[in-house]
Design goal:
Blueprint (H helix, E strand, L loop, with lengths): L5 H9 L18 H17 L12 H12 L7 H5 L3 E3 L15 E12 L5 E11 L4 E3 L1 H12 L2 E2 L1 H16 L3 E11 L4 H6 L6 E11 L7 H11 L32 H13 L12 H9 L12 H10 L1 E2 L2 E2 L4 E15 L5 E13 L7 H12 L2 E2 L1 H16 L3 E9 L14 E7 L6 H10 L8
Parallel strand pairs: 2-5, 10-12
Antiparallel strand pairs: 1-4, 2-3, 3-6, 6-7, 8-9, 10-11, 11-13, 13-14
Helix pairs in contact: 2-3, 2-9, 5-6, 9-10, 12-13
Catalytic activity: GTP + H2O = 7,8-dihydroneopterin 3'-triphosphate + formate + H(+)
Family: Belongs to the GTP cyclohydrolase I family.
InterPro entries: GTP-CH-I_C/QueF, GTP-CH-I_N, GTP_CycHdrlase_I, GTP_CycHdrlase_I_dom
Amino acid sequence: MGALDEGQYNVVLENGVNIGGGCDVEVNGFGGENESLDIEDAVRVLLQGLGEDINREGIKKTPFRVAKALREGTRGYKQKVDDIVLGALFPESGLESGKAGGVGGLVIVRDIDLFSYCESCLLPFKVKCHVGYVPSGQRVVGLSKLSRVADVFAKRLQDPQRLADEICAALLEGIKPAGVAVVLQCLHIHFPNFESAFLDSNHQGWIKALVSSGAGIFEDETADMWADFMSLLRFRGIDVTKAGKRDCTDVSWCPSHTFSKIGLANSMMTTAVTSMLRSLGEDPTREELIGTPARFVKWLLNFSSSNIEMKLNGFARNRKDLLQSGGNTIQREQHMCSELNLSFWSQCEHHLLPFHGVVHVGYCSAEGINPIGKQLLQSIVHFYGFKLQVQERLTRQIAETVSSVLGEDVMVVVEASHTCMISRGIEKFGSNTATIAVLGRFSTDPVARAKFLLSIPNSAETL
């Protein structure tokens, strides 16, 4: 069975599909050099607005990396559905949907992992996409093309409902089936601001949205074919019972809309973000994008370079006094203490993309001396998290600071999910990074290290 040849594909042309010219995407999906340079200039303005030295090692190449990631992550603006579908329609006799005795039926591709950039705040969000269609005209489309068409629209600034509608409409127009159905499960990272992170220990890290779109015989949400579609998802353990078309008057799902009044943002930084939107091929005056630069800047300013005093010296001095008497250290039996699953949020300094996760702290404390408690350790974690960071440095800084407070042996494990692993061409969904820092006894005692590591719970569901 081969793809339809040029003569056979005239049927598609007669049905009104505009095949058009070739795709105008350049090598690796990038646009012109000038657009990338404009984005790099804008990123330098943002870094300077955060108080960073743009010539610092680790930051120096950030503008280039950010521009490359954004160009890759929004390459859908320069791709055409026609170029994907052309040559991918295959003849298959007996597929006459709706006719008595026909053997054609629903075709579904489930669990397509996608990511997109939220048009309200420019943060990436994850998508689990399920696409189904009912063939007609005795032809089917190559299954991989359903995923590729979905990816074209995901690689643009998006809202979940519009993303579902655009995928649905494009497939209906491109392959002329009897009907198309799309269900999206979307996850948007929910960063707290610096102040609320210290106050709300129960902050939820994700906002969820479940949306659907249907066309043709799926246009009626009560149609029997929808029941078939949902059943084929359910027996795979996919719960989409609440999927529906979101009303356009609903409040935006993006957590940035829950910010307190934005107020006057840094004008140079907002102008820079506006320039980035334009370079990506977007219209900054589009209604949904008008407040985006200010929201992005407000969020980014959580990670301003700062030297906030943590006021830990007095606490550390008091603890050390408990361990000393007349200038001599009191010998006490050591026992292991730990605080697990301390949440953190941070911003990768290499790509200006968020990463988040949990921190586990283990330390040896003298008998009779109370552990320092979760609240102080969480404050230390937040202090170092709310900066432009790399995970290795974050781990070391937390360990060194806890050690300076305790004057004792410390081990720190950081587990994190990095959005740069899904949003810049790598697309390794579900990957996770762990780093370790050890000081004092933990650096020389493998038994102590093993004991602490065994105490760490399974965090797969929390990252």
